[in-house]
Each structure stands twice: as structure tokens, then as C-alpha cells.
Design goal:
0% strand; mainly alpha; 9 helices; Rhopdopsin 7-helix transmembrane proteins
């Protein structure tokens, strides 16, 4: 096992990310027993996203220990899985409040995967950086459009449950504000010529904690409160 210096913030951020997401995974798996049937799917999807984040943090920390830097592929492999899982968790969240089309499910799946993959191609210089950035940005804006102006927003807004409406607001805010770090980091590295020596990785890791853990906990809390409302009714 590698030994890290006390002042190694990059390694520390990976460890915090790893332990926080591991604890979140356990909490969410247990939480599937605290919610009614319809809410189990979005909660479990969040648990899977957190679990994948654990593996990504472990691999990234190992790469940092071995080379003193983290190749971008270590970031994107985790995002390629976790971000689509979280988008689909929101789809099933909205589906619990009203009917959602199968076409929307597949559009969100494909767009969320391509959003990450295209950014990776740009940063890996396998695609023109400007084109990759713009396409990735368009895909992210499409997802936000569905969350704010599509049938998902419409059905949640009409939900009689204040807990569901409030939970959707906070989770959607994380996707809007928290996820902004990814195109911003892409822009800095692709156009600013910035070479990550650890600072950007620290920012990514700390933001990932919010984007994965807070997202998941908000999902679980909403599911539990909505389930309690149903039981009382």
C-alpha cells in the first residue's frame, strides 16, 4: 500500500471520495428496504452510481500513487457509467409521479453516454477539441431541457406531494450547478492549455462527492418521505 504525504491533497481527496461513496452505497442499498416498490429503482440506480464511484476513486488514487498524475481516462471511465445512471434515476423518479415514454428513456440513456464520451474524445485529442466541447455542451443542455421543460418536469410539478416537488428541485439543481464543473474543466484543459498537476483532480473529487453523494441522499430522502405519505393515505 502506498504511503502519501500529509500535505498530499490530491490523494486525500481521492480517499475522502472513496470512503464517502462507499458509505453512501451501503446506506442506499439498505434504504431500498425503507421505501415502497416504485421508489426502489431510482434509489438502487443511485447506489450503483455511488458504487462505481468507489471503484473509480480507487483506480484514480492508485494512478496518482504510481505516476504523480492522473490521466484523464481515469476520470471519464467513472463518469461514463455514473452520469447515465443518475440521469436514469431521475427518469424513474419522474415516472413514479406520472407516465413517461419509453422513447424518453432511450434518448436520455444515449445522450448522457455520448455527453461524456464526446468530451473524452476531445480531451484525449481523438476529436477536435472545440467540436467535442460544443457537442458535449449541447447534450448536457438537452438533458437540462428535459428536466426543466419536458414531460418529467410537467408530471413532477403536478404531483400532489410537496416532498416529491422539493426533492426534484434539489436533485435537478445538482445536475444544473454541480455538473457544470465537467464542461468547465473540459474548457480549461482543452482551450486554456492547462495541465493538471493535481488541483483540477481535487476539484473534480470534491465536486463528485456532492454530485454523487448529495444527489443520492436527496433521492433516498424524497423516496422515504413519499413512501410515508402513501402509507398514511
Amino acid at each position: 500500500m502506498p504511503l502519501f504525504a500529509t500535505t498530499d491533497l490530491t490523494a486525500a481527496s481521492y480517499s475522502v471520495d472513496l470512503f464517502a461513496l462507499a458509505a453512501t452505497s451501503v446506506l442506499l442499498v439498505a434504504g431500498t428496504g425503507w421505501v415502497r416498490r416504485g421508489w426502489k429503482i431510482p434509489v438502487m440506480l443511485c447506489a450503483l452510481a455511488a458504487l462505481v464511484g468507489v471503484g473509480a476513486a480507487y483506480d484514480g488514487r492508485a494512478a496518482w500513487a504510481a505516476a504523480g498524475k492522473v490521466p484523464i481516462v481515469y476520470h471519464y471511465v467513472g463518469w461514463m457509467v455514473t452520469m447515465p445512471l443518475q440521469v436514469l434515476a431521475l427518469y424513474f423518479f419522474a415516472r413514479e409521479t406520472g407516465r413517461q415514454s419509453g422513447g424518453l428513456f432511450w434518448r436520455l440513456t444515449v445522450v448522457s453516454v455520448l455527453m461524456v464520451f464526446v468530451r473524452y474524445l476531445g480531451e484525449a485529442q481523438l476529436m477536435h477539441a472545440t467540436l467535442a466541447f460544443l457537442i458535449g455542451l449541447v447534450f448536457w443542455l438537452y438533458i437540462l431541457g428535459e428536466l426543466f421543460f419536458g414531460t418529467m418536469d410537467e408530471t413532477v410539478t403536478q404531483s400532489p406531494s410537496a416532498h416529491v416537488r422539493r426533492g426534484y428541485f434539489w436533485i435537478r439543481l445538482i445536475v444544473t450547478v454541480g455538473w457544470a464543473i465537467y464542461p468547465l474543466g473540459n474548457f480549461i484543459t482543452a482551450f486554456g492549455g492547462y495541465e493538471d498537476t493535481g488541483a483540477l483532480t481535487v476539484a473534480y473529487n470534491l465536486t463528485d462527492i456532492v454530485n454523487r453523494m448529495a444527489f443520492a441522499v436527496a433521492m433516498l430522502a424524497t423516496a422515504m418521505l413519499a413512501s410515508e405519505e402513501t402509507v398514511r393515505a
